[in-house]
Batch of 3 targets.
Target 1
Amino acid sequence: MSFRSQPTAQVDETATVGDGTTVWDLAQIREDARLGTGCIVGRGAYVGPGVLIGDNVKLQNYALVYEPAVLGDGVFVGPAAVLTNDYFPRSVDPQGKLKRGDDWEAVAVLVDEGASLGARSVCVAPVRVGRWALVAAGAVVTRDVPDFALVAGVPARRIGWVGRAGVRLIERADEPGVWECPGTGELFDEKDGELMERA
């Protein structure tokens, strides 16, 4: 496979990196991680062992993606964003003994196609971020985020909806429950706290 890696980056020999992917300075891709084609791994970003990353994903500088995270195609992870993997983090067990890899069970953050995580946001595993959702900068995600949801705050709460273009949707005055993207004109229907694209 043909990918580009800067001399100061560390890409484990067991990792799979797709064609056209670029790994920048000081980034680390651990063993058995799999990255798709056309990805960008920014300076100082970290990809944990066995993490699965789709095509055309952008990990900005110092983003931390801990195993066993799974990122779909077209996902954006902003600068210094963190995807955690330990719901009950402790350095030591109840007896004071240093915990090792076998002393806890890693849990995943799942980020679906096209979703974006803003700068310095934190996803506390286990959690799923839905398709084309947008997590605001600095938000702390502690529960699942629906498709197309715009969430912000600590803990993150839905404050609106966004379309594929990332633009905040506007509810049509003449049709309650129908949302329109001012950028693309696409229409969406809201029902029971979920948003669906019109065919």
Note: The longest strand covers residues 157-161.
Target 2
Amino acid sequence: MKTRRQPNPSPANAVAAFSLIEVLTALGLVGILFLSVYTGLGTGFAVIGVARENLRATQVMQEKLETLRLYSWDQINSNGFIPKTFTAPYQPGGGTNSGLIYSGTLTLTNFPGTESYCTNLRLVTVELKWTSGSAPRTRQMQTAVSRYGLQNYIY
């Protein structure tokens, strides 16, 4: 068996390695990539949390307004029948200690307008306030209730 001896490799054929600067640059880019991914995930979860709080606030306000629509005209206009303030809990994890408390106010006023039927309407405003983290938040919903509205068809 004949073996051939290979000549010494030339610098052009030598195996190239990464320099220290190239390695540090690559590690910096990978670090920025991981930081961006984790920041994006954290921001996404925060946005979902705020959206859940807003959805719960909308549900609470809608519940109050839909309940009010079933009252008779005399009940709506009597003093003290409809509570002016209320609270509603929100526990996203299902626990008893964690969660938010929504504080709400319900205001009944005369319907604005000059038409002849405006005396048969009341403007209802439901406002909710809560604190999400350190940010105070508020939502408001309004509707009109009629003397000859939905409650006459149900009762």
Note: The beta strands are 85-90, 100-110, 121-132, 135-146.
Target 3
Amino acid sequence: MMEKLISVIVPVYNGEKYITDTLDSLLRQSYRGFELVVVDGNSSDKTVQLVMEHPQTVDVLISEKDEGMYDALRKGMEAASGKYLCYINSDDRLLPYALEKVVRKFEHGQYDLVFGDHNFISETGDIAYSYKGINLGWKAISYLRRVPFAQQSAFWTREAYDRAGGFDKSMKYSADSKFLLTLCLDPLTRKGYISPPRWVSTACMAIPSRYP
């Protein structure tokens, strides 16, 4: 069996509206050496049924009550076996060549963190606006006090994840920003930017869809 270089974690709770679109986007990936980990927070709708019936292989499925999105993400990251890690929400989509570009970038450079650009789309799939990632140094990021790229376009190594301490499950909405900012403010973090075209899309919500 081919070793899976990259793990994609999908946290979801009552996500039946968009989860099929998310899984469809993974099924269409040109790069197939990825592992899919779905962490469901004991959904009361048809989420788990849709995941199990979808033709995209799910390597790890966890379905149990959790303490929130970041608790689910910690479970997913711990269950993942990939050298490279990422997560996308259950209303996000990756464009077909996204993972191929990411793995190529990691494998041809000594990077801890790789990121690109990001499209926000409407419920009909139309692009509402785009967010361009910028590869700034840690001093500039310290001055800005924010991560200069979208979480959905970010991928990191297992070593970087462990070094930054993972996701703080005590936080409700912003543990991903805290995690990525911790990485970006570390002078030792080597960041790689993947140039356009934009290759990640998310369906309309800017805050995690697990929380209404």
Note: Residues 202-212 have pLDDT under 50 and may be disordered.
